[in-house]
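Ticket opened by: R.M.
Priority: normal
Category: complex prediction / small molecule

The reporter submitted a protein together with 6-O-phosphono-beta-D-glucopyranose and asked that the result be attached to this ticket for the collaborator who will pick it up next week. Submitted input follows.
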Amino acid sequence: MNEEHGTASTETAAKTTTATATLAAPPPAPLTEACVVVIFGASGDLARRKLVPALYNLAGVDAAQGNFKILGVGRTEMSDEEFKKQMHDAVAEAKDTEGFAEEQWREFAARLNYMVGDPNDDGVHEELAARLDELKREGAGTNYLFYLSTPPSVAPSIIKGLGAAGLASEAKGWRRIIIEKPFGRDLQSARELNSTVAEVFKEHQVYRIDHYLGKETVQNILVFRFGNTLFEPVWNRNYVDFVEITAAETVGVEGRAAYYEEAGALRDMVANHLLQLLTLTAMEPPVAYDAESVREEKVQVLRSIRSMTPDQVAERSVRARYDAGTVDGQTVPAYAAEPGVKRDSQIETYAAVEFRIENWRWAGVPFYVRTGKRLARRMTEVAVHFKRTPQALFARTPKDEIEPNVVVLRIQPDEGIGVHVGAKLPGMEMKTSVVKMDFRYESTFGVRSPAAYETLLRDVMEGDATLFTRADETEAEWRLITPIEEAWAREGAPPLSVYAAGGEGPEAADQMLARRGNSWRKIAR
Ligand code: BG6
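Result attached by the on-call engineer:
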């Protein structure tokens, strides 16, 4: 067994030695089409923490073009200048910016505009159209990107309002809309939202965002699988024993209890990010790397998973909530004691589910996914566990058997890929161990990867929907999630388990895998 499974082993890191300079990607081509990015919910958390910093970075890359302006729309009363001040502080504090420079900020600030507006008010979209005309007279582009960084309940009125104000019509330039997650809260509401969107926008104008798809290492799953001949022949039920997908976080609800109390870990992470990782790991090779071909194959994976009956949900899922504990050396309170959490809350902060993909490639191979807040370490990865060799040639006792191969696609942090293989230990005797061949993004390429939102915003500006979720894909995701939510809400459903903050998660999740003789990789180092 190797260290990550908890028993002693000698692990050797066979690091890549390629010179970094030759591997650095060329800078991206400048954006050529001028546009205005309209952010609904501009005074909100996402805009401050992610969207505006991502646009700041993009503006840095494309400064020579000066080709996009930003119009924030929010309920908070403030002037353009106050908005700029808020965004200045937000960008300066953001984790994803490479470095903040006042000079670059001044160039960027000239792009920022703000408009007070409640999306539910009559006439607000006409006002928006007038403000966009004004920006045009000042030299802004006539292509518009509408970003809905608002709670799902507000989305329909914005979409309808944009339609009524003529802002969805592409007669005078492109019109694109980005819709943030959560895309609905169950199958029914996702269908309703899709049909509201379809009344106003054509599918080619719609970008349903899942920021995990913008992560460099998530896209690399496709390159790893379909850019090499080495792995694809064994990427199936004949060789793979089981697949494990983990998104562990150390953060708690981060002041978002109002949202989280309505969502929980299953809706917040599994229904989108983790199912996206699953589809990319399991999909067939697409005929081309374009939006239609890639998304078609992803939907096929989701369609190959049967939705579960309540009995299957009881057997193949675990929900739990964190208790007080210690994370990164800090004492943290229990979820139930977080501000804004209801006393009798039944919301899960941890979810583990076993999905079964009933197709020719994957029948019989469990895909275990788990996610949780306040776990031992921040770590997102896909681990593909291969079967044991048919013969234990080098082992005198079962204990000496070489552990099966594992390919670990590390999404974050420490982005890279590890391949665990058996090797002979140096010495006269025939003793073996597991060694790890390791590729690390940072040491190999030596450059900062763009933040997910940066990649995705740029893709939308260029009209590339490959990394966005198609309408039927969102519904296929909810078709799997809603029966789990419903089964959990039934009388007599297995109770919510508890885990100590800072740990590996609930015991029930270990037991779920133990039934098949499998175990999760350790989260703590
Ligand atoms: C968001 C969830 O979509 O993803 C958050 O709403 C979660 O609860 C976050 O913390 C995790 O994203 P990342 O990029 O930090 O892994």
